[in-house]
Amino acid sequence: MKKVFVKGIKGGTGTTSIVANLACALRKSNEHVLAIDLDPKSDLGLHFGLAWEHRDGWSHYPKLTDIIEQFHRDDDGVLFLPFGDQSSTQLPFQELISSCELLQDSADAWFLFDCPAHIDITEYSLTNKDIFLEVVNCDAINHSFIYKRLQKLNNIQSSWQHYFLVNRYNSASELEFDLLQLWQSEVPLLAPIFINKDEVIKESTAFRNVAINCAPYSVANDDFETLAGWLVSRVLYDE
Ligand SMILES: Nc1ncnc2c1ncn2[C@@H]1O[C@H](COP(=O)(O)OP(=O)(O)O)[C@@H](O)[C@H]1O
Ligand SMILES: [Mg+2]
After folding, report:
1. Which domains does the chain have, with CATH numbers?
2. Tens digits of per-residue pLDDT, 7-18?
3. Are 205 and 176 in contact (CB under 8 A)?
């Protein structure tokens, strides 16, 4: 089982779009993928064809047996679990994360967690096999947040594999170009790949879908295939 936690360093960096597009890219490489929404905004399902009127989700239930019934399968075979519209959950996050191991066929599966920006990852008992992608955008605020996060990480025992993943990168912007160059030379945990800004991501969401299905020859689709390939190679390296 491979667990990938995706969380914005601040709100609105593109976390949910990444979880949905990455889930589909992994699925198209024949991986078994479960995407789990840990964000009370409960918008992950919108990328997988779920109607916005859908209100149910795991936050409504205290027991794993009931929660399992809330999984949906999208047209590509990705299993996804909506958060639902309860502001507080009956089952604590940590219990949901741990109980993933009890799910049938979980041994080879990828679990992708769409985490809200405000949660503190140190509260969850992650292992050295777990991958944590902290999503950043190329601007001055994110620059200061990255350095604050690095300071915090230096002061705790982080067992998980932590990476900063740049999203919505606009190479036409001089500032973004310069910042990315700086980060690539100085930020120790920067992921070796980044996701470009591409309108296809917004357009495919308008179709309640992901880039690979709406625009298979897009930059966005290339980026997510590269991200999926990098994650698969990371996991193989660990084994
Ligand atoms: N790489 C990208 N290129 C263009 N737009 C993007 C990209 N990633 C995300 N977006 C857009 O940014 C907005 C916020 O994305 P979302 O995934 O909801 O962020 P979060 O989950 O961090 O709040 C959405 O309108 C989404 O379509
Ligand atoms: Mg989100």
Report:
1. 2-238 (3.40.50.300)
2. 999 999 999 999
3. no
Three-state secondary-structure class, residue 76: coil
Query: CA separation (Å) from 113 to 15, 96, 165?
Result: 10, 11, 15
The per-residue pLDDT for 157 is 83
Query: Which residue has its alpha carbon closest to ligand 1 atom 19?
Result: 14
Q: Say which DSSP state 29 is in.
A: T
Please, which residues have CB within 8 angstroms of residue 201's CB and are 6 or more apart in sequence?
Answer: 14, 17, 21, 211, 220
The label of the residue with tokens 């309108």 reads: 199
Query: Using a 6 Å cutoff on CB, does residue 197 contact ligand 1?
Result: yes
As a whole number of angstroms, the distance between CA 183 and CA 143 comes to: 9
The residue whose CB lies within 8 Å of the most ligand 1 atoms, and thus the one to mutate among 202, 207, 208, 212, is 202
If you measure from the C-alpha of residue 136 to the centroid of ligand 2, how many angstroms do you get, rounded to a whole number?
A: 13
Model confidence pLDDT, tens digit, residues 142-171: 999 999 999 999 998 888 999 999 999 999
Nearest-CA residue for atom 15 of ligand 1? 14
DSSP at 14: S
Residue 213 confidence (pLDDT): 95
From the CB of 82, is ligand 1 less than 6 Å away?
Answer: no
Q: Is the CB of 13 under 6 A from ligand 1?
A: yes
